[in-house]
Amino acid sequence: MKYYLYLGLPFLVIFGALAGENQGPSGSVNSVRRQSNIWRSEHRLIDLHQHIDYTEDHLARAVRVMDAVGLGVAVNLSGGTVTRKDGAPSEFERHKQLADRLFPGRFVHYMNLDYSSWDEPDFPERAAKQIEEGYRLGAAGFKEYKRLGLNLRDQAGKLIRIDDAKLDPVWKKCGELRMPVSIHVADPRAFWLPYNEKNERWTELKDHRSWWFGDPAVHPPREELLAALNRVIERHPRTTFVCVHFANNAEDIAWVDRMLDRYPNMNADLAARIPEIGRHDPRTVRRLFIKHQNRIFFGTDFQVYDRLTLGSGGSGPPPTDDDAKEFYAKHWRWLETSDRAFPHMTPIQGDWTIDAIGLPASVLRKIYFDNARKLLVRSLPPSATRARHINLEISPGNRRGSSLANDAGGAPGVFIQ
Ligand SMILES: [Zn+2]
Q1: Count of other CB atoms within 10 angstroms of residue 30
Q2: Is the pLDDT assigned to residue 79 strictly greater than 60?
Q3: Model pTM score
């Protein structure tokens, strides 16, 4: 509360009046930038999609970048599994304990599933138990990688399908516990096109041969993977799905629009896909963002391992911390200005430019942090949920539920059911 009074209120009074928190499309870029800079100076932004290696050095490096760019909290999607071996703490427990001790309040952690008993008859029950255990240990959500449908195989060598009924207890349990699911399926469309220098993602693909899925004898078509995920989302209407990489289909924003309309429990993050979304007509993209403003989350795919990854990476020189700051700055530029034809933030993804969409501050704040606060309200540190605006919007009495007004005209996300 003190934070609110000392830091928040003066800014609210000064800039709330000038820039207007509810300013519409006519608001000037300058006032939007000013407002967003204040949010950054207060470290209010939440990155819903990071992968940080759980070592002291790597976590510290991530926090240095987060501090420099104005992020308060990051979601580490690579929390690990909850499987214990020989009574030792699980990967997830060790990871969470380390990060929470070193940098309390800066990260929340998603758990991952251990598939090693997939072929056992009781896998479905054991998998649901993993989710329960993750919840008990403080997992903020559940992340599934693109391995489903593409890489993970059963003992007979058959690919494990995204919509395999054996996974239904997992999705169901996440819904019961209100644990959001971040799920990656498929990949850019170009990864299914011929593997040669004419492929527009050639720079990226030639460094990552395993990302090419264009042999129909080995991998299913991309559309089939997207359809399989849709079947899962449809079967589990009380589970909140954040479909990463702009609903896994940044190439087809009309499809993303239709699917968000069709499935109220589907949401999208922006991770590593502004280079793709930014190629579309910016007025169309802007309309889509405003329409679905309650269902879009800021996320980047910023990764810290022995080298940084800024959305995607290859064999080039390792990015520096300054590159990471520039990477984030380009996100701000795309979301906040109306600049045209500027280089995007992940050059390895392709040699083209993007057009910014200049969102109003009232929409930006949802994408930058309000939507994530609602999604993660159970897990966020008190400092994040007590920051000034959240006091007005989420009272302690409804932290775990109740519906919130939807002012975008779209369906409400299920995480606020
Ligand atoms: Zn990722």
Answers
A1: 11
A2: yes
A3: 0.86
